[in-house]
Amino acid sequence: GAMYGIALPKARTRLEKISIINCRIEYVKKYNRVYQFIILGDNGGDWHICLNEEPGVVQGKHSSPDITFTLGDESFVDVMTGKLNPQKLLKENKLEITGNITAVMDLSNVL
């Protein structure tokens, strides 16, 4: 419980670094995607990463994301900190992905 309360802001900081530092204009033009994260659990929440004309991480739901990831707060932290492979979560039905599946590859290129 409490440990993830500390870890989650670190994960968000990592998201912001990814989206702002790596989201140079060539990425923006190439991808032009919005990634929605629905994070379940006590330390969860809704966030979206914009790789478009206004890159960044925004709290809340986007009106038309290209792809949506739904997973638990602890799983999210483990993925963001590199402790857990997202494919393992998919196999265990702990990660749901809806939308444009090719957008997943684009995100992995940016990460």
Give a quick summary of the entry.
The protein has 111 residues and is α+β, with helices and mostly antiparallel strands. The chain has helices at 2-21, 25-31, 73-80, 86-91, 102-110, and strands at residues 33-40, 45-51, 56-59, 67-72, 95-99.
Beta fraction: 25-35%
Average residue pLDDT? 78
Evaluate the radius of gyration.
Answer: 13 Å
Q: Classify the secondary structure makeup into a structural class.
A: alpha+beta
Number of strands: 5
The dominant shape is globular
Q: Your description of this structure?
A:
The protein has 111 residues and is an alpha+beta fold. Helix content is 45%, strand content 27%. Strands 3-2-1-4-5 form a five-stranded mixed beta sheet. A hairpin with a 4-residue loop joins strand 1 (33-40) and strand 2 (45-51). It is globular and about 35 Å long. The model has no long low-confidence stretch (mean pLDDT 78).
What is the strand and helix layout of this fold?
Elements (H helix, E strand, L loop, with lengths): L1 H20 L3 H7 L1 E8 L4 E7 L4 E4 L7 E6 H8 L5 H6 L3 E5 L2 H9 L1
Parallel strand pairs: 1-4
Antiparallel strand pairs: 1-2, 2-3, 4-5
